[in-house]
Design brief:
Order of helices and strands of chain B: HHEEEEEEH
Oligomer: heterodimer
Helix content of chain A: over 70%
Shape of chain B: elongated
Distance between the termini of chain B: 55 Å
Distance between the termini of chain A: 31 Å
Largest sheet of chain A: none
Shape of chain A: globular
Number of helices of chain B: 3
Helix content of chain B: 25-40%
Structural class of chain A: mainly alpha
Strand content of chain B: 25-35%
Radius of gyration of chain B: 22 Å
Number of domains of chain A: 1
Number of domains of chain B: 2
Amino acid sequence: MIKKFIHQFASPKTFISKVDTYYNFIFYSALLIYVLSIIWGILFTPEDFVQGNSFRIIYLHVPASFLSQSLYLAMGICSITFLIWRVKLAAYLIVAIAPIGAMATFIALISGSIWGIPTWGTWWQWDARITSTLILFIMYLGLISLHSSFSNYEKADKLLSWLVIVGAINIPIIKKSVDWWSTLHQSASITLTDKPTIDPVMLYPLIGTVIGFFGLIICLVLLSSKNQILIREKNKSWVKDYV
Amino acid sequence: MNPIRKKRVYNILTVLLFSVSGIALILFSLNSKLDYFFTPTELMNKTFPIDKRIKLGGMVLNGSVKRASSNISFIVTDYTNRINVEYEGILPDLFKEDSGVVVLGYLNNQTVYAEEVLAKHDENYMPPNIEVINDN
């Protein structure tokens, strides 16, 4: 049954009709969660004992950084799916996710720079965390331009998937950079193993913004993948009916 | 799993194995060069040309900050060794005693003549009023 479900879902046609059914629900609930958590975080959270009000940019920086890495991992999973099972939808998804991932990484870099000015006293330093995130951003751009430089989609998809898999090595490096080397960036506040070092009154709105931002980004990914499917399958009869 | 797919899985694993070990070798050989700053203990055992810009990181020793007009001097410690810092300029807001700092400057005679001082904050976030309760 699972196999049947996956087979059905992997068909671009079913994917698009599922997206059309659930899109509004996902979008409005994500928007609601995000807006409420941002208001909660900015207006109803006490200021930090060291950083004062400037810590509040965490409600943009952390969701964006989290998404920048999660989207890359999603691309990695799609690449493996495409390379092993040759599922076309997976290849479309990689191409659809890349620009969104680049955008999330860009927001993470910019919000980090803005955060750095009042706290560290600098907007840019070449420490391991910041540099590896910049590499992630450049990798996203490289993957996008690589794919668009091919006229043959089949070749482009394969090469792209291989590069995504090799580039995925950067993700654990970004994650562990603050532990492996001395950095200006502080270490993680939220880990799987230890109690968060961020107070619950600040943590709850943060979790809200991460979930809300995640939902909004998923919406962008869905729209972008719909776009990608329609472009790539433009000669199929169902696309003509759909459009 | 049919043999073709099995082969593809092995291909992916091989590529991953080689690229991961390649990157790991590079990172291991660069290891401490990727550190953002030296601790006072590391600086003690090293000599640098006087015109080589270095970064020193550690905690500002409690009670060591002295101001004379626009000159500021303080001691950076990692709780084993200490290095003096001389600085002239504006300090970041988060600079204070007993908190993290990164100093960019030139080392001469166990003293760093700083060009830039950056504040380093840790991963703890909490409201000001419960600082005492959570502090340990």
